[in-house]
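Bench notes, afternoon.
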Amino acid sequence: MRALSRLLIAMPTLFVLVTLAFFMMRAAPGGPFDGERSLAPEIEAAIASQYHLDESLIRQYARYLVDLSRGDLGPSFQYEGYRVTELIATGLPVSALVGGLALGLALILGVLIGVVAAQRRNHLIDHILMTLSALGVCIPAFVIAPLMILAFAVTLGWLPAGGWNEGQWRDVLLPVIALALPQLAYVARLTRTAMVDVLQAPYILAARAKGLPGRWVLLRHALRPALIPVLSYLGPAAAALITGSVVIEQIFSIPGLGRYFVQAALNRDYTLVLGVVLVYGALIVVFNFVVDVLYGVLDPRVRAA
């Protein structure tokens, strides 16, 4: 029922998101062609007419909604001759590859670290792991990424400092690790906190009193409910990672969706910004729906309700 309600409010949510993004972009100072001061007035007028910028704001908004209903996100103002759908189709797979690998790495290692820390609660290894996790949360990506480039690309020469090169593993490794580290730290801390609470639950104590092996109790009874807070976090985190990290893609010169978004915002490319925002919002809705479904898989009480 909860998942169904998510789907019912998805379309109004995306409509509000597109509306706010449309008018906020128009309210920002400057326009998409303000930098071209050398153009004659008649040429500027022709360009404005070509992109319908000479129309009233309400009419532009109505035109955009009509085009959007047909699946047309409009032409890009910055990348001449390209539609926004073409640019998104080019950048999204790159961001999805890097973000998906980073998400998988963060989830696997984060859950493992959280479980180990919870089992060694208040011991030295717990303090060490949680201290490292706190550092991962506090240190931003624009600090971690240059340090990794300096260490592994400049000093040691093991990996390239940037570039894409059609997604070769040597070019992907550093961006994936830099993007995964903060998420790994969050997942580890969430898993550790949830696992500590679950291990003290009465049904876990009863399972141990029956003489069940510790590994069986952990994997069969404790791990699944402990992952529910992690799932709640992974919904928006997955959307953010897959649509591309702006900082990581800029630092490593990755032609992903995040890099397009930065350039579009700086150059007031209205349609490209709106397209990326719409994709990001749609992915959040999709991932939150998947999270709601997985709640029922991990927690029988949610499935019964």
